[in-house]
Amino acid sequence: MKRTKALGRGLDALIPLEEQPGGMAFLCPVDAITPHPGQPRQRFDPEKLQELVQTIREKGVLSPILVRSHGEGYQLISGERRWRAAKMAGLKEIPAILREVSDQEALELSLIENIQREDLSPLEEARAYQALMELHNTTQEELAKRLGKDRSTLANALRLLKLPKPAQEALDKGQITPGHARCILSVKNEQQETLLRAILARGLSVRAAEDMSRALARAPQKSRTKSQQLPPEVAWIRDRLRARLSTRVRIQHGRRKGAILIEYYGPQDLERILRLLGVSPNS
């Protein structure tokens, strides 16, 4: 078998300006293939995977997967969704292109191929960019140029990796969007959890989340010592109101008088709170 030309170790070799020839095309036994451990895609949408299964049953695998020799079989470089769907469709063989590459080159090709397909989740894409930058010790600007993307696109994607873990999990599950994520990143660490809880509990739009993030940024930070000085029965009332209204509630408690401050973040949020309090916004 004729070996394919070595890809080299730089991004210029892995993302050439002119397309290089591929490897050897053949029908590969599906059971001889193992997935690549560095595959950037971590989640496979069951519904979309089933749609692909149906397409493969009707029309076959239209685009070959990319593999390399590995032990007595083959290791996937790219095309794991197609491989999984082909197995589910009952295929014994799948069109493949064989490339003889090193471990590092296989990882790089897997990352690049998935990025160029543009069907990774936002966090998967961000992790792929980060991995490529670390592998090549390159800058955002250099990587963006080689991938044909704006540097701001890479910068915004990489910022998602700074999200707290609960927000990353919510983004991975589709509970929040990248727009929500950017709102969360715009506030201080201690306020990020507050904003995330509000987005999830109230189903806030990105616009409403932006309003809330601006309000949180303007809000003065209260010391915990002052909050802890509330009498237990007053603190209990505050906590019940917070749970009922799904927003920040503060109580200023004095010997003869006090005040309850209920925060809202935009007109829609105010209407929501008024309805919970039994007040018609239009009356």
Properties at a glance:
two-stranded antiparallel ribbon, 283 residues, disordered N terminus, Arc Repressor Mutant, subunit A, alpha/beta, Conserved hypothetical protein from pyrococcus furiosus pfu- 392566-001, ParB domain, five-stranded mixed beta sheet
In short:
This protein is α/β, with parallel strands linked by helices and 283 residues long.
Please outline the helices and strands.
Blueprint: H1 11-14, E1 24-29, E2 33-34, H2 46-59, E3 65-70, E4 73-78, H3 80-88, E5 93-98, H4 103-117, H5 122-136, H6 140-147, H7 151-159, H8 165-172, H9 178-185, H10 189-202, H11 206-218, H12 224-228, H13 232-245, E6 249-253, E7 258-262, H14 267-276
Parallel strand pairs: 2-4, 3-5
Antiparallel strand pairs: 1-5, 3-4, 6-7
Question: Could you walk me through the main structural features you see in this protein, from its secondary elements to its overall organization?
Answer:
- By secondary structure, the chain is of the alpha/beta class.
- It folds into three domains: 11-156, Conserved hypothetical protein from pyrococcus furiosus pfu- 392566-001, ParB domain, CATH 3.90.1530; 160-218, Arc Repressor Mutant, subunit A; 224-276, no CATH class.
- It contains 14 helices and seven strands.
- It has helices spanning 11-14, 46-59, 80-88, 103-117, 122-136, 140-147, 151-159, 165-172, 178-185, 189-202, 206-218, 224-228, 232-245, 267-276; strands spanning 24-29, 33-34, 65-70, 73-78, 93-98, 249-253, 258-262.
- The strands form two sheets. Strands 1-5-3-4-2 form a five-stranded mixed sheet. The protein has a two-stranded antiparallel sheet with strand order 6-7.
- The longest helix is centred in the middle third of the chain and has 15 residues, at 103-117.
- The chain is elongated, with a radius of gyration of 26 Å.
- The termini are far apart.
- Residues 1-21 have low confidence and may be disordered.
